[in-house]
């Protein structure tokens, strides 16, 4: 029995929905990704952002040109101003989503290795650098619920992404 879902991501087999990749200009999004740009998807609550990100990750992985990983960062919200613990959660969560989305069984071990060495405040940047270096394809990282992070945790995450951006591989 299909029904209208208003509580979370839409599952097309069980929910009535507009096909998520038709809700935005897919060609524009693919162009941004091909140009190695980062972008923000902003809309009110319960309007389908997560559903669209999940569909985009699936599309990119099926296409095979990118290794696309969706990751929900909401779990780090509990640590508020405890930057090291929040970012350790972000690294752990991205690694777990990578395992689930791309069958990258080594990502969680890499996350633990990174968290054991540099200060957790720089762990995200170090993890993403090492992970991308060993990836056979360019990484398309789709982060959801970043707005759940606050204060220094959000600033640290954004700064590590920005600092790492020009260090990306030339793929």
Can you offer a commentary on this structure?
By secondary structure, the chain is mainly α. It has one domain. Helices cover 48% and strands 9% of the residues. It contains 6 helices and 4 strands, in the order ββααβαααβα. The chain has a two-stranded parallel ribbon with strand order 1-2. A two-stranded parallel sheet has the order 3-4. Helix 3 packs parallel to helix 5, helix 3 crosses helix 6 and helix 5 runs parallel beside helix 6. The protein starts with a strand and ends in a 7-residue tail after the last helix. The relative contact order is 0.14. The model has no long low-confidence stretch (mean pLDDT 89).
Q: How would you classify the helix and strand content by structural class?
A: mainly alpha
Q: How many β-strand runs?
A: 4
Mean pLDDT: 89
- Euclidean distance between termini CA atoms: 45 Å
Largest sheet: 2 strands, parallel
Shape: globular
Number of helices: 6
Helix content: 40-55%
| Count of separate structural domains | 1
Topology pattern, helix = H, strand = E: EEHHEHHHEH
Radius of gyration: 16 Å
Proportion of strand residues: 5-15%
Major sheet strand order: 1-2
């Amino acid at each position: 029995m299909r029904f209208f879902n208003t509580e979370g991501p839409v599952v097309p087999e069980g929910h009535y929905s507009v096909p998520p990749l038709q809700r935005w200009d897919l060609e524009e999004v693919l162009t941004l990704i091909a140009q190695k740009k980062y972008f923000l998807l902003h809309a009110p609550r319960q309007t389908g952002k997560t559903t669209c990100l999940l569909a985009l990750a699936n599309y990119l992985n099926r296409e095979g040109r990118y290794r696309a990983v969706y990751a929900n960062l909401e779990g780090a919200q509990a640590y508020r101003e405890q930057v090291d613990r929040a970012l350790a959660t972000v690294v752990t969560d991205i690694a777990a989503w990578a395992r689930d989305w791309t069958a990258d069984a080594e990502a969680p071990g890499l996350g633990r290795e990174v968290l054991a060495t540099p200060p957790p405040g720089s762990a995200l940047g170090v993890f993403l650098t090492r992970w991308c270096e060993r990836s056979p394809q360019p990484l398309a990282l789709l982060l959801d619920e970043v707005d759940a992070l606050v204060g220094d945790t959000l600033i640290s995450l954004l700064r590590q992404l920005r600092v790492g951006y020009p260090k990306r591989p030339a793929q």
